[in-house]
Amino acid sequence: MSTAAVADTRPYHHGDLRRALVDAAARILEREGPSALSLRAVAREAGVSPAAPYHHFKDKNELLEAVAHVGWEALGEAMLDVRDKGADVQSLMTELGVAYVCFSQRHPALYRVMYDRSRDKDALPEGMQDKEDSAYCLVRETFKKVAGPEVADVDIELATIAAWCAAHGLAEMSGFAQFNPLREALGGDEAFLRGVLSHLGSFGNLRQDPAE
Amino acid sequence: MSTAAVADTRPYHHGDLRRALVDAAARILEREGPSALSLRAVAREAGVSPAAPYHHFKDKNELLEAVAHVGWEALGEAMLDVRDKGADVQSLMTELGVAYVCFSQRHPALYRVMYDRSRDKDALPEGMQDKEDSAYCLVRETFKKVAGPEVADVDIELATIAAWCAAHGLAEMSGFAQFNPLREALGGDEAFLRGVLSHLGSFGNLRQDPAE
DNA sequence: GGTGTTATCTAAACACCGTCCAGATCGGAC
DNA sequence: GTCCGATCTGGACGGTGTTTAGATAACACC
Question: pLDDT tier at B105 (50, 70, 90 boundaries)?
Fold first, then answer.
């Protein structure tokens, strides 16, 4: 036995445990929320001893970092899916905002881990403003395409940050109970989101011909 | 001894322990951050046994709720302080936004506790949209005053929520390391904040004469 | 003023947590 | 086939939130 036995209960020494741990963590997150995400619970879920994860991650933080990383990639994909919707800037940015917030609503626990890590580090994931297909760059490139070359990079960056902050704020607060009456009055959650997003981002600021 | 001895080491049975615990928690928060805020540490800081807090709070959550409550009141006061600055809406809202974010920067740990509690409950503090001098109502009333009576309440509420989300997002992300180059390029943190806030909130939406 | 009631506090215990250590186990290189 | 190094386990340590039983002291009442 050994090398050949593919899908045994324990293919390798234990198998690809690093990935198994991240998957287990994601499973716990979806099933029981962030408060249940202890390192021991992850090990239990993966069927190993509590000390096993320490051969793949320096500590609990490093595991959470890995979990957050897959979350950021999934968020990036979700936003790429809508990058062709929307004729003008306003509606495209709204579409991106809806995609962002909907992701956070579909994976609330994961989203919380993602931002808890960022807050602890006081930084977004490394390289987020550089690598081409990240959510952040997608927003910035959208702004840049629309604004044209005359607009200063500083303004592009400020607009991107502003949009990002707004989306993040809405993602964290959209489910708050106080908004339920308004949500229902508008006929559902997505209408509510679009309503809020329509009040956010004065994208006209970026145009060169200020009609004001 | 007893009733008369005012400021002894332990005036009452223990004194006003409930308040002492909240104060101790706030002290730990400022000194060591949110990760150090254990119930036992609070009890230690207040000089009582680990079980003592349970005679004043159902559990740790309830203590944190009390801590968050004082935080929300302090935030409301900080925003009331600037409610007369700024000639037009845009600049007044910017001023309020700066006050909001600066509060979160002055008390980062407290701000985090405040929103962690809200996220757990999926709700802002109870009564926040009702009691007159809350930060939330201050923003809404500002919008209402400017918009005039013709604007629908729904739009006022949406604008308020949008502004709040934007401010919260900026509060949580303003310190992120990725923004440091831009912050320095703009000549300091407050300039950076104003720059981002200027791209947020298309307050013109609320005016009745859409010059568009 | 003594007495009983009730709120308050302590000490000890429980289960769980993150983390480290010594030793067992096993894959792969020589 | 033997050794090495990576991987995993069992057990331990200190810390956590919470509960229980029992001590203590303020207060109400006679």
Answer: very high
CATH number at residue A50: 1.10.10
Q: D3 C1' – A76 CA distance, angstroms?
A: 47
A121/A184 same-domain check: yes
Contacts of B199 in chain A (CB under 8 A): 155, 158-159, 161-163, 201-202, 205
- Token couple for B126: 């109870």
Determine the structural domain holding residue A38 and report its residue range: 15-57
pLDDT score at A8: 43
- Grade residue B7 by pLDDT with cuts at 50, 70 and 90: very low
Nearest nt (C1') to A60 (CA)? Answer: C18
* CB < 8 Å to A157, chain B: 182
Q: Which residues of chain A have pLDDT under 50?
A: 1-9, 11-12, 208-212
- Confirm whether A76 is domain-assigned: yes
Tens-digit pLDDT profile for residues B66-90: 999 999 999 999 999 998 887 777 7
Annotate chain A with DSSP letters as a single string.
Answer: --SS-TTSSS-SSSSSHHHHHHHHHHHHHHHH-GGG--HHHHHHHHTS-TTGGGGT-SSHHHHHHHHHHHHHHHHHHHHHTTTT--SSHHHHHHHHHHHHHHHHHHSHHHHHHHHHHHHHHTSPSTTTTTSTTSHHHHHHHHHHHHH-TTS-HHHHHHHHHHHHHHHHHHHHHTT-GGGHHHHHHTTSHHHHHHHHHHTS--GGGGSSS---
Q: Is B204 on the interface with A (CB under 8 A)?
A: yes
Residues A162, B179: Cα–Cα separation, whole Å? 12
